[in-house]
Amino acid sequence: MIALYTGENGKWWENSRMKIYGWINGGFNLSTSDRHFGNAPAAYYIQPNSVQLDQAAVYVERAPDTVQNSHFDWGFRFTQLYGLDYRFTTAKGYLSQQLLGSNKQYGYDPVMAYVDLYWGQVAQGMNIRVGRYISLPDIEAQLAPDNYTYSHSLLYTYDAYTQTGINITTRFSDHWMVQVGLSAGNDVAPWVGEPNAKPTFNACVGYTWQAG
To answer: pTM score, two decimals?
Structure first.
């Protein structure tokens, strides 16, 4: 982004608040297993005794200005991921035939694709997110900067990763925040239909102490 900011259209890029960034993350392991995906069901180092491209990710995003209570703002995020870790982020209906049909070692997943609509005038700020997003009641995001260890327990293999739907996050005071949403369920697109996609409600309440 620094290169774009200092380029010919740098001022436009800064004023747009859009950002493009990403990473390449690889790894290797040594194992007593000698079969293809022989370390499974442990995650994420499932391919034994080899060097792997875990993630090549590109983000295109615009974050809404949520540090204000006076006007409407908007944002979006589109995240593209390629690598071995697509096996853990895949949602049925999003190019999932790569895994579910062909069991490919490497694959592509549009892991996040959503828009944010923020009304600062509602309570102390209300954001409506529509699209495919990281599941709210999750324990860890598997994207590399949020993922501090290479090996994980079985829980991380089966843990929900993304949901597709709508989520409303409202801040009522300096202490209280409430989220409610409706999705098609965990790791499935709404257009897949029954029995995989089912209307699923979620609700979260957050309380922040005065000391943070």
So the answer is: 0.88
Nearest-angstrom CA–CA distance, 171 and 176: 6
User: What percent of the chain is predicted at pLDDT more than 90?
Assistant: 64
Which distant-in-sequence residues (6+ apart) come within 8 Å of 66 by Cβ? 73, 118, 120, 125, 127
- Whether residue 126 contacts residue 171, with contact meaning beta carbons closer than 8 Å, is answered with yes
Percent pLDDT > 70 in the chain is: 97
Separation between Cα atoms, residue 98 and residue 96, nearest integer Å: 5
In the three-class reduction of DSSP (H, G, I as helix; E, B as strand; rest coil), residue 2 is classed as helix
Tell me the domain boundaries of the chain: 57-207
Residue 127's pLDDT is: 97
Position 138 confidence tier, pLDDT thresholds 50, 70, 90? low
Cα(38)–Cα(64) distance, integer angstroms = 44
Answer yes or no: are the C-beta atoms of 74 and 163 closer than 8 Å: no
Alpha helices in the chain (DSSP H): 2-5, 10-16, 86-89, 97-100, 155-158
pLDDT for residue 64 is more than 90: yes
State mean pLDDT over 166-171. 96
DSSP 72-131: EEEEEEEEEEEETTHHHH--BTSSTHHHHTT--SSEEEEEEEEEEEEETTSTT-EEEEEE
- SS3 category, 158: helix
